[in-house]
Specification:
Length: 637
């Protein structure tokens, strides 16, 4: 294992790698230009980083200034971020999927002076709100021919191309070299590295202030927990760097260890890119793993006959083999030989589609259904599940490679305390740390609270909101409900999501929804039932599965009716609901449902950029349809 490089600031990571791990000629970044993967060395990246820093200093950027980005993942993100980080400015990333009003709000709330814009579509959004943002003095498009979008506009902010910034900066580097170094040395661990605006399922976004100490300690202690990442590893990055999970688990981890980052072209081309670059580590979200699972099951069983029998036999052998290994026993000779056959005939074929070199995948951003984790375990693909929030930098817990407990998010990382607190009485049931880990620990269920190096500095310009989540003893209240199971943290649901039915029964939607999501017919599900007599749901079907089953054309999904009323299609969904309902308590079962023609979307304001449902928005938007389900019940069990 390669040496763990420590740093107290984000810009210190890359400098330490070049000084102690790799020569500056080593490949740092990869991205695809047309049909070719282009490699970028540390030297090439640092030249551009220093050039941009010099240009910023020439333009009067000072320590603490907020500089914004709205750009897809790629080398330009890294150049811009590292350039502002090393002069003490604050990265204020904006999700590319946000609306114009949300972009305007973040630019004004943060007081951002500059924004890097990734493509024409995003530039048009920024230009429409630019004159409403008093602090914004500079817009930097990171693509050619941007003038045709901005030249005829009467803008308060100046517009200059990113290529021009770099070229002018290269001529300034010698002049500002000492100033850049002095600015880098002057950064304090308590200084803010970035503002990340929480997408929030309710209310307006809040800017989470994360310091250099928050972020570097989170990286260092996560790597202590997972000491299997090497300087030779290659990460494929596709989750947005505007989100704290990808920024820490891929970008900052790679900065600290000297790993190479390859940027995927898009989610649609992810499978193709995996086969091309052959990553050794991939950070992903549960929904991606669910899709891989569904596709693998479909491909393995759809042909029927011998092929299907071999596939199902292999999965059964994989499960037996996994359970023996998890029990810390040695598989017998028969099982060992059966597993070799299953590996050759089935598992290796699936692994080849990931590039064939994956050591493990890290799942975050939401709860991974237990059956999905077990499926990958049966294939011999390790999934490490992590847990945290933007406010916790983000990692609080992550699965240990040698101790995977499916349905949990792993052991608490070093240096922090995590407690389970009674929601009503505030009594703390247990406080756990990395050091007092016990494999047989099981606790009561309650709110998960945390204190230590991962907890944010606070919400930007919102001291009252900060005080509501960080109590007088320094505990940050996550709003998540969970417990400890076999020493590992287990998440039940969000406190705000909890439904209390008319009979006083508490129902956490996530585990119920995950049960129904086992159906390959279902893409999304939204549970309703607070203060109601029974549970209902809005269900989004798997478009691909529905089209294949019923021979539907794309025009079917373009019809104006929000909900599908066709009895045959509704009954088709109901069949799986009835089967899966038997895994749940009676009061958790769906009694009525509506089938939504198209998925909940960010464009319609129904879900957050991290794919979490905005409960209040959805319940208000479909209030009449929800009420109808309680007037005209469709039995599902």
């Amino acid at each position: 294992m390669s040496q763990l490089i420590e740093s107290s600031t984000i810009p210190g990571f890359i400098r330490n790698v070049v000084a102690n791990v790799h020569p500056d000629s080593h490949t740092f970044l990869m991205h695809k230009v047309k049909d070719t993967w282009v490699e970028i060395t540390y030297k090439q990246a640092l030249e551009k980083i220093d050039a941009i820093s010099a240009w910023f200093l020439r333009m009067g950027v000072q320590k603490g200034d907020r500089l914004s980005l709205i750009i897809e993942n790629g080398p330009d993100y890294v150049y811009y971020d590292q350039a502002l980080q090393q002069i003490g400015a604050v990265n204020t990333s904006i999700y590319p999927t946000l609306s114009e009003s949300e972009i305007e709000y973040i630019l004004n709330d943060s007081g951002a002076k500059t924004i890097l814009v990734g493509n024409p579509f995003l530039l048009r959004k920024v230009l429409r709100v630019a004159n409403n943002c008093e602090s914004l003095i500079r817009i930097i498009p990171a693509f050619d021919d941007f003038e045709k979008f901005s030249d005829k506009l009467n803008l308060n902010a100046g517009v200059v191309g990113f290529d021009q910034v770099i070229q002018e900066g290269l001529a300034l580097v010698d002049q500002y070299k000492h100033a850049i170094g002095a600015a880098r040395e002057a950064i304090l661990t308590t200084d803010i590295s970035c503002l990340i605006y929480t997408s929030g399922t309710t209310g307006i976004p809040k800017g989470v202030m994360l310091t250099h100490h928050n972020l570097t300690q989170n990286v260092i202690n996560s790597l202590i927990q997972i000491p299997y990442i090497e300087k030779t590893d290659l990460f494929l990055s596709f989750l947005p760097l505007s989100h704290v999970f990808e920024r820490t688990a891929t970008y900052h981890i790679c900065l600290s260890k000297g790993c190479t980052i390859a940027f995927a072209q898009s989610l649609e081309l992810l499978a193709k890119n995996m086969a091309e670059v052959k990553p050794t580590v991939l950070c992903c979200v549960p929904r991606l793993l669910e899709r891989i699972h569904d596709k693998a099951i479909k491909n393995g069983t759809s042909a029927g006959g011998v092929k299907s029998k071999i596939f199902l036999w292999a999965l059964e052998i994989g499960k037996k083999y996994r359970l023996v290994k998890e029990a810390d026993k040695k598989p017998g000779i028969i099982l060992k030989n059966q597993h070799k056959i299953a590996e050759k005939l089935v598992f290796s074929k699936i692994k080849e589609k990931t590039g064939g070199r994956l050591k493990f995948m890290v799942s975050g951003g939401g709860a991974l259904p237990r059956n999905i984790g077990e499926f990958f375990g049966d294939l011999g693909i390790v999934i490490l599940e992590g847990f945290g929030l933007t406010e916790t930098s983000p990692v609080m817990a992550v699965t240990e490679y040698h101790r995977v407990i499916y349905g949990t998010v792993g052991r608490i990382i070093p240096g922090i305390e995590v407690a389970i607190q009674n929601v009503e009485t505030q009594h703390i049931y247990t406080i756990q740390t990395h050091d007092n880990f016990k494999e047989d620990l099981e606790s009561e269920e309650g709110e998960i609270i945390v204190r230590g190096h991962c907890v944010m500095k606070g919400y930007w310009n919102k001291p009252e909101e900060t005080a509501t989540v960080i109590d007088k003893d320094g505990w940050f209240h996550t709003g998540d409900i969970g417990r400890f199971y076999r020493g590992n943290l287990q998440i039940t649901d969000r406190l705000k999501n909890m439904l209390v039915n008319a009979y006083g029964k508490n129902i956490y939607p996530t585990p119920v929804e995950n049960t129904y999501l086992k159906s390959p017919k279902i893409e999304q599900i939204f549970l309703v039932g607070d203060k109601r007599e029974y549970i209902t749901a809005i269900i989004v079907p798997s478009r691909e599965t529905m089209q294949e089953t019923f021979g539907l054309k794309d025009a079917f999904f373009e019809q104006p009716d929000v909900f599908i009323e066709d009895k045959e299609l509704v009954d088709w969904i109901g069949q799986d609901l009835r089967k899966l309902s038997h895994e749940l308590a009676k009061f958790e079962r769906i009694k009525a449902f509506k089938v939504k023609r198209n998925p909940f979307s960010m464009d319609d304001g129904e879900i957050t950029p991290t794919m979490k449902a905005k409960r209040k928005v959805i319940e208000k938007k479909y209030a009449a349809d929800i009420d109808e389900m309680y007037l005209q019940e469709t039995e599902a069990d």
